[in-house]
Amino acid sequence: MSDECCDPAPAVTVPGRPQIALAGNPNVGKTTLFNALTGSSAKVSNYPGITVERRTGELKLPTCTADLHDLPGTYSLNARSAEEQITLDALTGLHGDKAPDAVIVCVDATQLARSGYLLLQCRELGARSVVALTMVDEAGSAAPDPKALSRLIGREVVAVTARTGRGLEELRAAVDRALRAERRSDWVWTPSPALRASLDAVKEALPAEWRSQQRLGVDLPGSDDAIALWALTCIDSGEEADELVGVPATLRAAVEARHAGKDVDDESVLGRWHWLDREVDKLIHKTPDRSLTQKIDRVLLHRAAGFAAFLGVMALLFMALFTGAQPLIDLVDHFFKWIGAELRGVLGAGIFTDFIVDGVIAGVGAVMVFLPQILMLFLFLGFLEDCGYLARVAYLMDRIMRSMNLHGRAFVPMLFGFACAVPAITATRTMERRRDRILTMMVVPLMTCSARLPVYTLIIGALIRGSRVTQSLLMVGMYAFSVTTSLAAAWVMSKTVKPLKAKRLPFIIELPPYRWPRVPDVLRMMWGKSSMFLREAGTVILGCSIALWALLYFPRELPKGSPDYAALIEKAPSAEQKAELAAEEQAAHLEASYGGRLGHAIEPALSPLGFDWKIGVGLIGAFAAREVFISTLGIVYAVGGDADEQSQPLRTHLQRHYTPLTGLSLMIFFALAMQCMSTLAVVRRESRSWRWPAFLFGYMTVLAWVVSCLVYQGGRLLGFG
User: Fold this and answer.
1) Which terminus of the chain has fewer CB atoms gathered within 10 Å of its CB, N or C?
2) How confident is the model at residue 521 (pLDDT cuts 50, 70, 90)?
3) What is the pLDDT of residue 9?
């Protein structure tokens, strides 16, 4: 390696605890390296205002302890999306945060030129950088010589194999030396006179806090040129850039004045790539063997065989998520019910007991019941992502999803939506662009989740007359209806909702070689994301559960003239009569509650759909979970809160009060309405905003009302009322 990049003589003293950034392309082993360097000290959180994970851990260096920050993977710093711009912001300090004292740039030994592009941009920014040459075990004899690469780029290069620990100590020593080196901005290409003039003009408009003197503590004209070049290429790319960076009006005006309708990307991109093609090729003497990956891809990427294989894999995962987690879900549910029953026996009857058992304990149970599915979902996605298959899924499905303006990776969350919308929405994290994630979140709740199934079973069994074949076909029709509606809704929103109307970017995705996933990394990712769900979405779900309990519980006073149920129960001659009177008392309290009053209040709005106040109260109760609609109706009709979809007394009451047309209208309403506070909570958590859950609730409620009204009123006009 060159003396220039290895000189240990201290030139700069970094004050305070050094901050080190870990940057690199996706699929270069960056996260595995981060885990190996930080061990169990890593903490997972989110970048402020956006759902992109940030991992931070302690990095032990020979002379000090530093904080290591794992940045989102990106192929370049010419990023357009908000998520990708985080890496630029973290490397430059554009938001006022301190720029890192040094950067470890992961470079894939099997894809040297592609990985080197990001390194060149880091050099232009003036970052103190060290290269971690990853995937050397996979490259084998085709791996470039680290010393030759170091001489070429003027930065230390260390070959590492994070899985075995090879090169980690050498990398720590190289980072320690880099912290004592002076910053410098190195460009391998020279801007044309026209671009030079544009850079100078835009550089003059940069805010003071964006200039290198304040960001880096040293005057680096080349670094300011790099920021100006980013502004020229990216500021005009849409709202996401404005939201993240907060571009000043003066800078925007300077950029727009210099564009003059010309694309300034080409010169900088071609300049870097010409240098890489010319210089890096000299270091490559052999092409890595990827024959096995190519053989597998001939099957998995085939239009017919690949799609069949994908359906097989998804069917297995879906079955595991839908049925494999059910015993654990039942165990969690029974556990919290057991705790509630034990506490009720210890504390005795009373409002405080009801609050603890039905409010707090039931609310915690409402959060924890999702944990088995969440854990299994992230376990599956982690394995699929690490082995390289999830990228193939996105490539394969993009041919279909693009017709509805959805990303190829949207298919997996939508498929998981058949099990539950909560884990399905968390699965949207596999999509890089915020617009794609939000659009997918807005349509996933339209998929027929497992919580709707008991409601459909009750309604079809009680109100839809006909053979079992007819009833089965109607159930299948509800699933087909949900898929059709979700795809149509995605297309409409992508054309009409401004934040979701962003121009569809060309679908570019890397297909990494197949690798066996590293189990510790997958498990660490699974638990990190699941615990984040419990902390953030769980608190909202718990609060909503307690609020909904209070709505259906208070006030406790029955209207004047109501029977004295306590006296009647005491005088009842048999246990069966006592139970019937207790159920009637429970129904009377529910009707007198704020929720019952709200049910009466919204009855005029529900009557065009064929619903009465009793169904209205059931819809309110269903916000806890859609299947709670059944137990709430059981209370309303004095059948008991333990009624389920097979309860014959409840079916008898429904048959007496409603028609088949009302049943069909109710199923349509349940298919389209947002009747799940847990889904709203997780959308709030993933979007980092109340705007999107409010929009989701609003558009789905209006859509459900309109379609149900058309079904019911149209059916009456046709004589089916």
Assistant:
1) C
2) confident
3) 40
Q: Supply φ then ψ for residue 132, to 5 degrees.
A: -100, 110
Say whether both 508 and 567 belong to one domain.
no
- Whether residue 323 sits in one domain with residue 371: yes
Q: Which residues of 581-619 are buried (b: 16+ CB within 10 A; e: fewer)?
A: bbbebbbbbbbbbebbebbeebbeebeebbbebbbbbbb
Q: Can you give the pTM of this predicted structure?
A: 0.69
Annotate 95-149 with three-state secondary structure.
Answer: CCCCCCCEEEEEEECCCHHHHHHHHHHHHHHCCCEEEEEECHHHHHHHCCCHHHH
Q: What does the buried/exposed string (b/e) look like for 386-399 if buried means 16 or more CB atoms within 10 Å of the residue's CB?
A: bbbbbbbbbbbbbe
SS3 511: coil
**Structural domain span for residue 617:** 529-541+557-717
Predicted pLDDT at 714:
95
Q: In Å, what is the CA distance from 663 to each residue of 502, 609, 610, 668?
A: 40, 10, 9, 9
Round to whole Å and give the CA distance between 440 and 442: 5
Please say whether the beta carbons of 287 and 513 come within 8 A.
no
Per the structure block, which two tokens stand in for 679?
């889904």
- % of the chain exceeding 70 in pLDDT: 89
Secondary element (H or E) of residue 35? helix 30-38
Residue 565's pLDDT band (cuts 50, 70, 90):
confident
Instruction: Please report whether residue 215 resides in a domain.
Output: no
Sheet of 129-134, strand order: 43-46, 53-60, 65-70, 19-24, 102-108, 129-134, 157-159
What's the token pair of residue 501? 């109307």
One-letter amino acid at 262 equals K
Note whether 386 and 416 are same-domain residues.
yes
Same domain? 274 vs 389: no
Give the C-alpha distances (Å, rounded to integers) separating 307 from 62, 156, 364, 428: 52, 45, 40, 21
User: For the chain, what is the mean pLDDT?
Assistant: 84
**What are the angstrom distances between the C-alpha of 588 and each of 238, 634, 658?**
56, 12, 21
Cα–Cα distance list, 508 to 75, 398, 563 (Å)? 11, 11, 70
Q: Does a structural domain hold residue 243?
A: no
- Is 213 contained in some domain? no
Nearest Cα neighbor of 53 from 372, 526, 445 is: 526
Q: CA-to-CA distance for 228 and 521, rounded, in angstroms?
A: 38
Query: CB–CB of 651/518 below 8 Å?
Result: no
> pLDDT tens digit string along 87-129?
888 888 876 677 899 999 999 998 888 889 999 999 999 999 9
Identify the CA nearest to 73 among candidates 55, 48, 94, 100: 55
Question: What does the alpha-carbon distance between residue 243 and residue 477 come to, in Å, rounded to a whole number?
Answer: 42
* In the predicted structure, residue 1 carries a pLDDT above the cut 50: no
DSSP of 288-355: ---HHHHHHHHHHTSTTHHHHHHHHHHHHHHHIIIIITHHHHHHHHHHHHHHHHHHHHHH-SSHHHHI
The Cα–Cα gap between 463 and 501 comes to 42
Q: Does one domain contain both 183 and 314?
A: no
Size (the chain), residues: 721
Q: What is the DSSP letter of 508?
A: -
> Contact, 658 vs 603, CB < 8 A?
no
E strand or H helix at 235: none
pLDDT at 459: 93
pLDDT for position 42: 59
Rounded Cα gap, residues 569 and 257, in angstroms: 83
